[in-house]
Description:
Blueprint: H1 7-23, H2 44-56, H3 75-87, H4 96-109, H5 112-123, E1 129-132, E2 148-152, E3 157-164, E4 175-181, E5 192-198, E6 204-208, E7 219-228, E8 233-234, H6 240-251, H7 255-277, H8 283-307, H9 322-341, H10 357-365, H11 375-386
Parallel strand pairs: 1-4
Antiparallel strand pairs: 2-3, 3-7, 4-5, 5-8, 6-7
GO molecular function, one term: flavin adenine dinucleotide binding
Cofactor: FAD
Family: Belongs to the acyl-CoA dehydrogenase family.
Amino acid sequence: MNIGFSAADEQFRQQVTQWMHLHLSGDFAALRFRGGPGDEAFAPELRKRWEQVLAQGRWVGAGWATEHGGRGLSINQQVIFFEEYARAGGPGRMGHIGEGLVGPTIAAFGTREQQQRFLPPILAGRHFWCQGYSEPGAGSDLANIKTRASFDEDSGQWLISGQKVWTSLAHESDWCFVLARTEPGSVGHRGLSFLLVEMDQPGIRVQPIRQLTGTSEFNEVFFDQAQASPDNLIGQPGDGWKIAMALLGFERGVSTLGQQMQFQNELDEVVRIAKANGAAQDPVLRQRIAQAWSGLRVLRYNSLRMLSGVQDGSLRPEATIYKLAWSTWHVELGKLAMDVLGPEAELLAGAPYELTRLQALFLFTRADTLYGGSNEIQRNIIAERALGMPREAR
Length: 394
């Protein structure tokens, strides 16, 4: 793993810094350091406009291969971009699911026609995506999916019925990639397919889930004979599990640097308040701040180690620890934020949900060790897939 930067890399860093300073201004200045976890409901329309500005600067999909419309940036350059984006206060990305998850998946598994159809609108910041994986009975046990899709000969369409849950930003999305059961009677990993579904159509209902933070970036999505063209099937019927797992491999890839960008901003805010209110003088809090800083460095180095291999969606052994590591770290950051705030942590500016940034962070992190695979499930994955230990009795 090479974590050094060349003179050319540092010149590239200056280009990113200057671009961010020039463009994250005017109307977009209000977005600085906003839109992260617990704050994703902030100014969605303005953040979508920001995505288009990023696209004009060719920063969306900058790490994609040039054959797919990207700039083919090296891993070092992608690291630099995320670092400088964070330092400038770049907002949480509305397009990260399209750019970081479904885009690379379509590039890897889609046909040439699908790539030409779906990738350019992502690169242009015009199409926004959400993820149709989890269901009420299929969260950490994703293979228990019940949403079904059947091909209707009369209409020539896939017809999808079922329910997805915890669908981030579904109410702001143009498209959803849906893992559905297309083989009647199949169970587990078999008989699943990966479909691209347009959200603005009859047969799809999005119902927000109100959270402790008072925001509703998560949603339930109900499908009642919603349609997907046969051209919107990625791979073959029955390939869904393979493709879904590759997508999760991309989730543990370069997009982790964007997540760490938000973490760094949050930690910087904790440090700023600790200095301002005197909490930084408490030796125990100082030690916890130092532990948070060093923990974030470890996450960064492990990400660089993950990124040193082939970026094909395969889950490298070191990638299996990432979800467990970041969620545990982030929960502790939320606790630290409350302790740094002291008595102010329990006071609200007004009713009912005028939370400060750090109060929202604390409440949001309560779910970190559950969504995306609970810590218990992650430990099983590490044991079985990374260490080769005997599988848990089923």
